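Hello K.,

You asked for the raw outputs rather than the summary table, so here they are, unedited. I folded two proteins back to back in the same session to keep the settings identical. This is the first:
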Amino acid sequence: MNYLLIDLGGTKCRTTLRNQKNEPVIIPHHVNVKVTDDVLKSIIESIKPYNNYINKKTVIKIAVPGLVKKNKILQLPNLNIGEWDLAKELKRLYYNKVLVYNDLEAAWHGEYTDKNFLLVYASTGVGGAINGENIEFGRRITINTNGEIKYHEIEKTLTKNDLEKNEFILEHLTGGLALGKAAVIKGLQLGVNINKYGEELDQYAHNNEIARSVFEDAGSILGKAIQAYAETHKVKNVIIGGSLGTNTYYFNAIKKQVKNINIQKSKFLNSSEAIFRGLLKL
């Protein structure tokens, strides 16, 4: 049996066709498509190169950056999408079995080494999973102006009305979009593609103190949040991934804030690979 595996991110959609042994069915191994306002169209564009290879037995598995329940999307915050039955939309076009998962849950299974580990991915936004369950890490943790950190055990993503005026959502301070804004505020014109923040900004930072400070400031905040969560939930192992998470300056800043915890970088330079491998397991 073959599986069409789709990683829908905040800025890109990556798709691959693989068999049960995780072997690519055709070349290229994967297709990248920039996500536009028409998200469904972006997904379909990423699938097109594989259309001739999809048959009735092909199972479509898609990982999305947001809340998923009973195969339906409840919310994709970074894509400004609320409730959406994406599986139903895709079935109309392909008539295949379609399964929808949270991307961090899939990535957790792809990174799997030990049940007791927290996976945190930083890219366009910030997310996390523990024991195979999405915990909405970047959007349930808030920081107030005094530097105090709170984790909100809630069912839905926080809105402005849920927050006090002096509180900020973690991913708004530490994700890729936040880093871009921070760089501009500090007077740095990056000129980089947000899809490659981890790679391009890392190279840029080698010779630019402001670029390094952007990474270090954001990484320090994320590290404090990870430490607070790990202490409360007795987590001993943390894996950091995503296009930003594998960045040298960002990761080192996170690591400085984490005490008495084993913290490692993702074994996959590209987070989509962990997601694809996890989707095959789910």
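The second followed immediately with the same parameters:
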Amino acid sequence: MNQSAPQWQTAAHPSLFQWFISRGRVGLGRLLAVLWLALVNTVGAATADDWRFGFAEDEAPVSDTGPRGAGGIIPDLAIELFNRLPGEALLMDAGPWIRMQRWVETGQLDGFITYPSDERQRYAVFSQTPVFNIDFGYLVFRHDHLERDRLEAAESFDDLAGLVFIGQQGAEWERDNIPASLETVLVGQLDTMMHLLVRRRSGDFMVMPPEQAIAIARRLGYEGQVVYHPVDFIPNARIPFHVGLRLSHPQSDVVIERIDGVLSSESYREAADRIVEEYR
């Protein structure tokens, strides 16, 4: 005898109920369990939307791998942001930064937090308000430097003449913003730069965000041996990082407006300042 397949419907599932009852093939307890599962699946479709973000895996303390997929300043700020967005859930991946950007562009990830370059704006919509400003407007030097007073009183690069700047090979930002007239030692790795500054004393100062300097010093056992001092004569020192959502996501325009509302709120800014301060 031919029987037509049962028709699965939405929340109430009337035909499913009738099909079970008419055939007497299931007890009431099992029937209720099946109906409860159907209801849960239906309601689940209206719960929080998942937003999968990509972060760099090797740029501690700004961004690195962590127990939740990513850790560091920017992932912590992202968590704080999404905790204030009811109905939106954050999932975090960490990997090579080039790959993370590519995955946002191709739709494998939904967003990231980065500088909104012209190229990135081609495939992502960005918040108007920055999440975080990476500030290179700091001189980093030994706490016992004999010319510490001079370093802290400097009002221009001319005031640093005769001191040795320790820089990183291939760092285009340094090349564009630190005068070539300074006596300079260039090395390939950030760790090596810190060793030259503290242990070998082969240079007098670096230009680096304080969060990064403190993290490197702590990792190498130099905690307490370096200090940082803000200056206002380094051009292009503040680099803003904004939330970017892929343009191909159907909710990107709506959610980016909600994100801007949170980022511009006083309560979020206070929370963000506390998070950043924890890394200093």
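The CA atoms of residues 197 and 203 lie 5 Å apart.

Happy to rerun anything if the numbers look odd on your end.

Regards,
P.
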